[in-house]
Amino acid sequence: MRKPAKLFIVLPCYNEEEILEQSARTVLEKYRELLAEKKIGKKSRILFVDDGSKDRTWEIISALHEEDPVFCGIRLSRNKGHQIAIYAGMDYAVSQGAHCVVTIDADLQQDIDALPRFLEKYYEGCDVVYGVRDSRDTDRFFKRTSATIYYKIMRLLGCDLIEQSADYRLLSDRAVKALSSYKESNLFIRGLVPEMGFQSDTVFFHVKEREAGSSKYTLKKMLKLAIDGITSFSIQPIRWVILLGILVFVISVVMMILTLVDHVRGVTVPGWSTLTISIWFLGSVQLLSLGIIGEYVGRTYMEAKSRPRYFISDETGEEHD
Fold first, then answer.
1. Bigger pLDDT: 156 vs 52
2. In this predicted model, what pLDDT tens digit does every residue of 207-247 receive, in sequence order?
3. I want to staple 159 with a disulfide (CB 3.0 to 4.6 A). Which of 188, 233, 272, 308 is the partner?
4. Residue 60 near residue 100, CB atoms below 8 Å
5. CA nearest 65: which of 317, 314, 311, 313?
6. Domain containing 29 — which CATH number?
7. Is residue 231 assigned to a domain?
8. Residues 96-153 pLDDT 10s
């Protein structure tokens, strides 16, 4: 059994002024409950990561810290996306001496009451505890269907993802330090964490309806996350381009043979439709292939620059052990 851990609960925020104070009260109540039961250490903290919000999110975080130093926060200099915000929070938490870190969305749709079960797994020796949704009943049809298809595609590509897992997870300090050794700028944490291979377990949680505000995870951001996951962990799409090229070549040879046979037989058919369809088909295949290859080339270019992932413009206070 590990001693009561210094836990940091990390909540990434982007324009969450409508729900932040309510979420803070809910997390604080759970924090005090865990503290009273001696499941966490006295220096545990609730850490908000402001991902370059344009509303009053940072003002609220600063006010919460003034009211109770259990709340702390960092503010990224600009919006860098959900995955970078999560990573920045975990990295900062470990720099402040955290023994373990739990990440959860600021809207608290992910059930905070599951937190004690995460800690139980940690005290049993797990360095990684995955939060897995028990159902997708709260999702709309499109999101539910697209998520199912996405996980199937990722498995087809050979990516070791925990199905229906979320960014609600616990990582020990050594797992966070191991994660920081991955230097790619396009982070896909859901794929990187299983790859590290630390002892792990899962905790099922219920997803609630959002109580205020609207989700900031737009379709565009979901698509970006999906593309990041595919391009970060598999070159299979490029291989599919090669197979597609071979298939088109075989079809072209067959069509050429059929055309020659018709010519020898003296069968003349106006070829406008065939020619037009062929041009459009081959053109679309070429553009699609170039697009896939270009995506990989572009990401290689961005990674080669080795630019910093983020900058912290403000923080509510440091507390080093």
1. 52
2. 876 555 555 555 566 666 666 666 666 666 766 776 777 77
3. 233
4. no
5. 317
6. 3.90.550.10
7. no
8. 999 999 999 998 888 999 999 999 999 999 999 999 988 766 566 666 676 677 777 7
Say which residue the tokens 């897995």 belong to. 132
- Residue 194 belongs to what domain range? 7-214+309-315
Coil, strand or helix: which one is 310?
Answer: coil
b/e burial code for range 26-58 (CB count within 10 A of at least 16 → b): ebbebbeebbeeebbbebbbbbbbbbbbeeebb
Assess whether 245 and 296 both reside in one domain.
Answer: yes
> Under 8 Å CB-to-CB from 261, ≥6 apart: which residues?
none
Report CA torsion sign: 149, 152, 158, 160: positive
Structure confidence at residue 53 (pLDDT): 92
pLDDT bin (cut points 50, 70, 90) of residue 296 is confident
Pairing of strands 45-50, 7-13: parallel
196 and 263 share one domain: no
Helix axes 189-196, 219-233, angle to 10 degrees: 30
pLDDT over 70 at 8, yes or no = yes
DSSP 215-249: ----HHHHHHHHHHHHHHH--HHHHHHHHHHHHHH
Q: Where are the alpha helices (H) located in the chain, listed in sequence order?
A: 20-36, 57-67, 82-95, 115-123, 141-156, 173-179, 189-196, 219-233, 236-265, 272-305
Cβ atoms of 148 and 141 within 8 Å: the answer is no
- On whether the CB atoms of residues 130 and 162 are closer than 8 A, the answer is yes
